[in-house]
Specification:
Layout lengths: L1 H19 L16 E4 L2 E2 L11 E6 L2 E7 L10 E4 L4 E4 L1 E7 L10 H12 L2 E6 L4 H9 L6 E9 L1 H4 L4 E5 L2 E5 L2 H8 L4 E2 L6 H10 L4 E6 L3 H13 L4 E4 L7 H6 L4 E3 L11 H6 L3 H11 L8 H13 L2 E3 L2 H12 L8 H23 L9 E2 L10 H10 L5 H7 L2 H7 L1 H4 L13 E4 L13 E6 L2 E3 L1 H4 L7
Parallel strand pairs: 1-5, 2-6, 7-8, 7-17, 8-9, 9-12, 9-13, 13-14, 14-15, 15-16
Antiparallel strand pairs: 1-3, 3-4, 6-18, 10-11, 18-19, 19-20
Bound molecules: zinc ion.
The site of zinc ion has 4 residues, from β7.
Length: 477
């Protein structure tokens, strides 16, 4: 190296010296030499929806993909570093479009957050979207970590009742119980919901969300349809996507879709379509919601014309859907693990949400709703309680009937579309100009989705890790 640098610098130094007199020498730095990386010989599944390409060449320079295709389509530049990948499978980095990372009260804001993110990366997850959180705090913490997927955060927005339903007494079998406003519980978690009321300026909420580092809005609860329309319009003016719980009482999913909302989460929430506007407006507390959902959300109810109308509106307007099936299965499993007991309201709700949510998701897929494989993963607690994008893909295949290819698209191309905005346009598929977020597998995931286990290495923005360098075991499947 040394002779090369001297030979480059020599003439430059001499020229500078000539131009500026004997006492002022300008040192001109040589341009950094960034050889491309060529991944050669792998079967390439680029996530665009096309067939796999055998014996492919994928070129990466810095943090971007330069070219990806059949041998001969991408000329390997001289000096490129070659990674031999014959017999292997190259896929886009996976995206979990629904996670919850920040829970300071549960201790996951520090070491556990770092370990969770390293484990996700080791599993081939190169991007996550946080759907709860305090965006500014989460992004600052993630920014300090040496190894992590890309993390994008949404800003929670809810209506006045979510913040001020007062400390009120509710009669229960065990006597009167004092309940606080849900926003207070959420703030104790460390999250920062923003309040929007009819008459407020939606552009101010959007500006505050952007200022906090959020890339979009997540509508959480207690918003009427006029508020939803205003918030969606304001966010879209700023180039930001809007997602929300499937019905933000009193607004129904059909109204959310009609307002132009980009996506809805939680298949069990489609039960909201079965209520009248007046009923939706009176369901304020979580307990009330769970009680009525457990009553109406049967598998047969998933075929109710009102739900089908909401799904068809979503298809027509391109509204995406994150069913979050794995999280519900984890919840049901935790009740099943208990000894014989009298089912609680939460258990009845979880069981109804499972059967109904599965059937709604089958209807959604049958009718052509675009699915994103967001999992509702949480970054704390025992491993067995953590939903994952792998569990979500497994259920989409086994219970909903998707092919492994369709399930993978829901965790790559379509999850990128779900994330939306500028970030969503640069991830999810292996295409020139996109971030070099790649996973090399020793087995074919299109034959069996469990082969996603066989990670040789993960590349995020051109930087390669082997799983053994990252794993702590905390968030392993
Ligand atoms: Zn969630």
């Amino acid at each position: 190296m040394k002779p090369l640098i001297s030979s480059l610098l020599g003439p430059l130094l001499a020229l500078s010296a000539v131009g500026c007199g004997p006492h002022r020498v300008h040192v001109v730095e040589p341009k950094p030499v960034n050889p491309s990386v060529a991944i050669v010989g792998a079967t390439l599944w680029d996530g665009t929806g096309g067939a796999p390409v055998p014996n492919a060449v994928t070129l990466v320079r810095d943090d971007r993909i330069l070219c990806a295709g059949a041998a001969g389509e991408c000329l390997i530049p001289r000096g490129a570093r070659i990674i031999e990948a014959q017999g292997h499978y190259l896929i886009p980095g996976l995206i979990d479009s629904h996670v919850h990372l920040l829970f300071p009260t549960n201790g996951s804001a520090g070491e556990e957050l770092a370990l969770d993110l390293r484990d996700l990366l080791a599993q081939g997850v190169t991007t996550v979207r946080d759907m709860g959180t305090n965006p500014a705090e989460l992004l600052a913490r993630v920014g300090a970590l040496p190894a992590s997927p890309r993390v994008y955060a949404m800003q929670l927005v809810a209506g006045r009742r979510f913040f001020f339903n007062g400390f009120r007494a509710t009669a229960t079998a065990r006597g009167a119980v004092l309940r606080q406003a849900p926003a207070v519980t959420m703030q104790w978690l460390g999250w920062t919901p923003m309040q929007f009321n009819p008459g407020d300026n939606p552009d101010q909420i959007v500006a505050a969300a952007r200022e906090a580092g959020a890339m979009g809005l997540k509508l959480y609860a207690q918003l009427d349809s006029g508020s939803v329309r205003q918030l969606v319009a304001a966010a879209h003016r700023a180039g930001m996507p809007v997602w929300g719980h499937a019905w933000v009482q009193p607004t129904s999913v059909r109204e959310q879709a009609t307002a132009g909302q980009d996506g809805v989460v939680h298949s069990a929430g489609l039960a909201g379509e079965l209520f009248t506007v007046e009923e939706r407006d009176t369901l304020v507390k979580d307990g009330d919601l769970q009680t009525v959902t457990a009553q109406v959300a049967t598998a047969a109810a998933a075929h109710d014309p009102r739900i089908l109308a909401a799904l068809d509106t979503m298809v027509r307007l391109g509204t995406m859907f994150e069913p979050t099936l794995d999280a519900v299965q984890h919840s049901v499993a935790s009740f099943e693990a208990k000894r014989r007991h009298i089912p609680s309201l939460q258990e009845n709700y979880a069981r109804a949400a499972s059967a109904f949510g599965m059937e709604v998701t089958r209807e959604a897929v049958r009718r052509g709703v675009r699915i994103s494989a967001g999992s509702d993963h949480v970054a704390y607690g025992p491993t067995r309680d953590r939903a994952s994008v792998f569990g979500e893909m497994r259920l989409l295949i086994d219970s909903i009937g998707l092919s492994p290819t369709a399930a993978l698209l829901a965790a790559t191309r379509d999850a990128a579309r779900a994330i939306g905005g500028e970030p969503g346009r640069q991830i999810g598929t292996i295409q020139a100009g996109h971030y070099a977020d790649l996973v090399l597998l020793s087995k074919n995931p299109l034959e069996n989705i469990d082969n996603l286990d066989a990670v040789e290495w993960v590349m995020r923005g051109g930087h390669v890790w082997r799983p053994g360098q990252l794993r702590s075991g905390i968030a392993m499947r």
